[in-house]
Amino acid sequence: xxxxxxxxxxxxxxxxxxILNLFILATLLLLHTLFASHWGxxxxxxxxxLTGALLAQGGELFWLVARTQPLSAHGITVLSWGSIILNIAxxxxxxxxxxREDTQYFILxxxxxxxxxxxxxxLPTLAVIGGVDFINFFWVWYYGLHHPQARVGEFxxxxxxxxxxxxxxxxxxxxxxxxxxxxxxxxxxxxxLEQTRGRLLQEERLAVVGRLSSAIAHEIRNPxxxxxxxxxxxxxxxxxxxxREEMFQIAGKEASRLEKLTTDFLAYARPRGLQKTLSxxxxxxxxxxxxxxxxxxxxxxxxxxxxxxxxxAEIDAGQMQQALVNLVMNAVEASSPDGGVELRGVADxxxxxxxxxxxxxxxxxxxxxxxxxxxFFTTKPQGTGLGLAIARNIARAHGGDLSLSVNNxxxxxxxLTVPAAGSNSGQE
Length: 428
Known about the structure:
The protein has three domains: 7-150, no CATH class; 208-269, Orthogonal Bundle (Helix Hairpins); 277-426, Heat Shock Protein 90 (2-Layer Sandwich), CATH 3.30.565.10. The chain is built from twelve helices and seven strands. It has helices at 7-34, 36-39, 44-66, 73-98, 110-119, 122-146, 154-234, 241-269, 281-298, 317-334, 366-369, 387-397, and strands at 277-280, 303-307, 312-315, 341-347, 352-359, 401-408, 411-419. Helix 5 (110-119) packs parallel to helix 7 (154-234) and helix 10 (317-334) packs antiparallel against helix 12. The longest helix has 81 residues, at 154-234.
């Protein structure tokens, strides 16, 4: 059976059929009343039958809409056949009650044909159409049996109506069957696409792990090799005390670099949980600028700060300061002495604030832009390549982001956004 793929679809479909039946029943009662001079005044039995049918259909609609527990396939089958049989029986009862040769109540036969075309296989659908057509001819014969003056031409009209029923039923069945086939193909395509997506994500994760492992091994190997070489040289006989001291200093520097690399990697791979507090943006920017000024002064690079008064955000002050220090120190190292670094805090719409770290220096090369946030990617001889990656992780943990917003030959700007105080986007 071509039943609806799920209960919600069946509920919508059945509700449409019920509403169609309610509309037909109400319209037939209205027309019979308006054209009583032609069809005769509706009898009490006819009105009672129509009213009962309206109440029954309305009750079914109310039950169906209120039902949340899905029906089983057997329940849907029983309900479908019950709807077909009851509507055919209702049309016959109304026709007999109205007692007219050309009864208008056989329009109710359209409902069972549509239900069969939507939900049954071809043979059961043809059986329903055949049953409706038989009833059509049977009614003409039955009426003629009790009314000898009935016209023989009514059989030709019944044949025309039966042909219309057959064409409509088969056509609707073919269209619905085609839609079911397309739906099945689409579902299979979506399933294949989801499986392919899962494989691609798995391969991408493995590729990322591979690149990360390779980068870690490369970054660790260099300082370890330098430490081993320096200590091996320091242990040679005949080496002067000054040379031995120089080797120890080299080993100490490389050990410190290895410690920093390990600390940065742990900060990237296993970030601490956020401990947010309401912080004023100008205080945060002032603190970061004070921390970075000594190093910037060594390079002759001034640091200027500017923040719109009253800007506040719910942030983890320590982690946000770490992210901004990384950005500012990168900007200092990339800036020309006469340009300096500017640290700005501005409102970015109603729901977020933006911190810009801008330096006057050369633009980031196009071949570098795609990798600047990649872990362990660096263009600096002593860099770990984790500063920007850590800063972006911190921004995203706050519900914001970090991006390269300006990349001109004389101006480079990184923008870090976080939700403003009281914004729902900042809620965890």
